[in-house]
């Protein structure tokens, strides 16, 4: 049956300054590597997936391909002009729940925003994003999703020659903080207003003014980062162009899940100073929200007068994140209604884990079966901790069920992701399917023990590279 995507495009109707119409660049011999049938169903897509469409060789009926304009603060410095340099929005669909979703190709060729880039991606980051974003979704964490992955048959040049690929991803929108910065920096108030009206309509129809809108983004991002912390996720490039308005995780570049718990863990090879280390993530978001706030101020007739309220909204964010963090981590130890003093209980456990090089995921998961003792080096201190913990759980009858829902057994461990990529490049999609399958039910212990075993020193991946 021929593929049919029920496009209903809205971004393409916005003023010209917001994007550039551009078609994907065809590739030599596309083959489908992966297809997400349940997601296709959710989006109302019917028919058989064809590699030509998801490689950008065939433009599906109803698509209106375009590249979006945006800016961004990258590692603290402002780049006034970034934009979709290797991504092309095919269009949007209204999903089965009535929610508008973007369908975007990533790695589909050059656009007017490519600067010196080739507009391409190779199989590694494409399959990494496929597996990790779908894992994130199964963990219950807001994220963009992966619909298809295609191998292009072309070779692309990075440090070495690598097999090219295209990812099709969906998002409740691809709007980023950087979209607002782009127009604010140019003093293009009309486009900024059009963008704002669009974003309000799509993400926060009840927001009555830019301040309320900002507070909405802050609330969503506060929740998101607390969720990341709870599963040991390190985004790796939390630049404002990679911070979504929707509150979804976006741009899986050098991201990784921690194995052993160390708060200052960094994987990204380009994050020299650890700006986006695990423990810094909650501090970075208020900084990013301050950038959004500054851009939104330009919408107001008297920006100066609004500064105190905007500043207060941003300054309130650390406490908001803290409350979300407490809720997430309390749940991980079975506490549904956290009290302030639970903070000490949680941080004492984390300290024991840190001191003993404990595996983050396995330690929390072992609490479910009272086997965490094996994960902690200081047994005596852990016994004391357990006594306090059991005491506290006396008033939490549903602790076990709560912990079962919040402590995954399986996460996309780096060494397994790397292994999966190497196999796929060599033509074996087996490890990809195995990982994908196990990660679709992350709270269930998979049969294959390798999937839940931390890496040995030799297997450990210490650096991840940007998707470029
Ligand atoms: P990222 O670090 O992946 O979020 O990308 C930052 C910016 O660089 C975005 O504007 C991307 O579109 C652009 N970019 C990254 N890789 C490429 C590439 N291979 N070709 C063109 N543009 C790229
Ligand atoms: Mg990006």
In percent terms, what proportion of residues is strand?
Answer: 5-15%
User: Helix coverage percent of residues?
Assistant: 25-40%
Separation, N- and C-terminal Cα atoms: 35 Å
The overall average pLDDT, rounded, is 97
Count of DSSP-assigned helices = 15
Query: What is the number of strand segments?
Result: 12
Shape: globular
Helix/strand structural class: alpha+beta
Radius of gyration: 22 Å
Q: Give the uncertain stretches in residue-range form.
A: none
Structure explained in plain terms:
- The chain is of the alpha+beta class.
- The chain is 40% helix and 13% strand.
- The chain has helices at residues 37-43, 51-55, 123-138, 177-186, 189-203, 210-230, 281-297, 303-315, 317-332, 342-355, 360-367, 379-393, 399-406, 414-425, 430-439, and strands spanning 19-21, 31-35, 66-68, 72-74, 77-79, 87-94, 100-106, 121-122, 145-157, 161-171, 233-234, 256-257.
- Strands 2, 6, 7, 8, 9 and 10 form a six-stranded antiparallel β-sheet that branches. A two-stranded antiparallel sheet has the order 1-3.
- Strand 6 and strand 7 (100-106) form a beta hairpin.
- Adenosine monophosphate (AMP) binds at residues 82-86, 113-114, 117-120, 237, 241-242, 251, 253, 466-468.
